[in-house]
Structure formats: structure tokens, C-alpha cells
Amino acid sequence: MTGTVVDRELPTPEAADLLELTRDLAARELQPRADKSEAAGSFPRELFAHLGELGLLSLPYPEKFGGGGQPAVVYLQVLEELARGWSTIALGTSVHVLSCSAVAEFGTPDQQETFLPEMLGGSTLGAYCLSEAHAGSDAGAMRTEAVREGGDEGGYVITGDKAWITHGPVADFMLVAARTDGERVPGGGSAGISTFLVPGSAPGLTAGVPERKMGFRASPTSQVRFDGVRVGVDRRIGDEGQGFRIAMAALDAGRLGISACAVGLAQAALDVAADYAGRRIAFGRPIDEFQGVSFLLADAATQVTAARQLYLYAARRKDAGRTFSTEAAMAKLTATDMAMKVTTDMVQVLGGAGYVEDYPLERYMREAKVLQIVEGTNQIQRMVIARSLKHPGHRS
Ligand SMILES: Cc1cc2nc3c(=O)[nH]c(=O)nc-3n(C[C@H](O)[C@H](O)[C@H](O)COP(=O)(O)OP(=O)(O)OC[C@H]3O[C@@H](n4cnc5c(N)ncnc54)[C@H](O)[C@@H]3O)c2cc1C
Hints:
Blueprint: H1 13-40, H2 45-54, H3 72-85, H4 87-106, H5 109-120, E1 126-129, E2 145-149, E3 155-166, E4 173-179, E5 193-199, E6 205-207, E7 221-232, E8 236-237, H6 243-279, E9 281-282, E10 285-286, H7 291-319, H8 325-350, H9 361-371, H10 378-390
Parallel strand pairs: 1-4
Antiparallel strand pairs: 2-3, 3-7, 4-5, 5-8, 6-7, 9-10
């Protein structure tokens, strides 16, 4: 893999080893396969299995349930190195971790003991089902319903269509948000929503054809239909009506994952462009001797470093048990806008070579775009940040 080793502050020698292992994996096994798989749109399931064997799919969760017991500052830097090698792998890891978070944080001890070992064991992959075709930014307008049947011994019947689900066609389990208030009208509000852990193989659950996307083509995104899917009460995570809060808490942590993916992607673009600019000759000199080019590289290096520090700041707050929702929104906004700008500028550094598939830069630029959209668009991040300015006392 092109590029220097990023100078990182890591809390333990074990964390330093983990980062080294990840860099090595990214250089040897991810980056060499990325271009071809993305062009073919083929999902690298076996690479996720390999990550699972290495323990990289469950780093931020307790060791007693099969997790890696790592703080967010370590997990996110691992994610960043994965993204530097292949964004689809980093995004998929982030989505899987997000899908486990509700059980890990809001599940009862019984639910944690029953479900987490398999979810964190490395051989399964999760999906997070919040969005619907008519309810993306306004997720509280969802229509998918979970109707209670059979009293305390019974369960729920889930019916509805989720949209844009990463890992929709391949997930082994899904964290699903659905209405339990019987409120069918759009805009019915977030108060009547609950969350459920649904097996990917549940009868009545079907995934649509993967969307044909601008980027991340190796990462399957599809609709998921719930046609009378039955789950027991033991699969409701949290109380009835608590689901929106659970889904939003998961997104706070997920946004840090997206920030780390964006920084890794931008770092990869900078690595390729800096190397190219030192070798490409124009007017008898390497182009990195022209200020017009070297300033693009200098700005990119500065922006990548700044965005990395912002997600690490939010991660340190999370690790210390402090609120981090606003800081996660700031990190996601900054890192993903940065990745869009840096990948675009690095295409410019390569000139025509940046625009063709001989180099990965045009792909990086396409991949950066969706990071400004997923897990809350950057307009929604600004809303979260602006709201915190009106209620500053709520943060600690
Ligand atoms: C590749 C991909 C993977 C995804 N993976 C998942 C997944 O795994 N699980 C999942 O649940 N969802 C997933 N999503 C869905 C994603 O979270 C939504 O696309 C996103 O939240 C935006 O919703 P929307 O597409 O409906 O856009 P809309 O909500 O229709 O927004 C359209 C535009 O209006 C703006 N807008 C909307 N409301 C406001 C407002 N109040 N103020 C200012 N601007 C506003 C938006 O910012 C946006 O620019 C994925 C999407 C993509 C593209």
C-alpha cells in the first residue's frame, strides 16, 4: 500500500499491535482486491469471515460476550486503516458493529447472553433497518408495523418495507425499527417505535435486488420486505416505544464509524496523489515542485489530520462515558465533507490519470459522496449541532 504510517497515539501496546495487524491486512489482502471487486460488484463475504476470525468485527464490545474489549479510540483507528485499504470492508464492519449496539447497550442480561456471542463471534454479519422509501431523514415517519399477538407468551408480527439496507441481501441478523403504536399515518411520530432483533433467515423476510450505486458497488444495499415476520417478545430490545431512542443512540456511535471511514478514504487518496506527484514530470520537473500542486497536497494533509483529531475527540468523550452525540455529528460532518473535497482535489493532482480507472482515485471520489448521505445526511448533522446550541446545558 502506498503511503506513510500514520503517527498514532494508542493507549496500550496491544492496541499498537492491533493497528499494525490491520495495516498489514489492508495492504496485503484488502487493497489489492478492491478495484476488481468494486468493478464486478461482488461482495467479499470471505474477507468478512477472515476479519471475524481475527476479532476485528467486534472490537468495541465486552470480552465476556466475545468482543475485543477495545475503547472507541482504538476501534475507530482500526476502521480508518481498513478504509485506507478498502472502504467497503470498513463500511461493512461499521454497519455490523452498529447492528450489535442495541443488544449490547439496551438488551437485558438474558438477551445479551443469548444473542451476543453469536453476533460478536465473527461468523455472522448484521444489518441495521431504519430507513424506508418515504422515511429517510424523517425516520420517525416509518410505516413498518410490529403487531403484538398472543399476550405475554406470544410475540410480534412485523410487516413493512425497509429501504437502502446495507447488507440487506446477506445479513444473518437485522436490527429493525418498527411501529408498535398502531399509528399508520406518515409523520405519526417517533414515540411509538420499538426495535427488534430479527434473524436474516426468518420466514417472510426477503431482500430486494441490490441497488445499482455510484460507488461501494461491492457492498450490497437493498430493500428488505417484512411480510408477516414473527418474532418472540424476547427479541424486542428495550421497552415498547423506546425504539427511536435506541436507534438514534446506535446512530451516534455509527456516525463515528462513518467519520473514521471518511478519514481512511481521504488518507488513501492523499497517499496515491502524493506518490504520483513526486514521479510525474511536467515542464522538466516533478509536479509536486509546483506550488499549485503542492498546496493541494498540503491542504489535504492538514484537513485529513484535523478530521482525524475531531473523531478522536468525540471517541475520547464516548470512552469517558460523557455525552458525544453533538461531537459525533461534528465529526461526521467535518470528516465526510473533507473526504469529498480531498478526493476531488486528489483527482485534480493526477490530471487525466485521476479520471480513469487505472488509478483508484475516481472510485474514491464516488465512494466519498455517499458518506455525506448515510447515517444522517450532513444537513441532518447540522440540525443536531444547531439543536445543541439551543440547549447547551444538556451536555456533560
Ligand atoms: C448506500 C446507502 C446505504 C445505506 N444504508 C442504510 C442502512 O444500512 N440502514 C438504513 O436504515 N438506511 C441506510 N441508508 C439510508 C440513508 O440513511 C438515507 O438515504 C439518508 O438518511 C437520507 O434519507 P433519504 O435518502 O430518504 O433522503 P431525504 O430524507 O429524502 O432527503 C433528501 C434531501 O433533503 C434534505 N433534508 C431532508 N430533511 C431536511 C431538513 N429537515 N432540513 C434540511 N435538509 C433536509 C436531506 O439532507 C437531503 O439532502 C443508506 C443509504 C445509502 C445511499
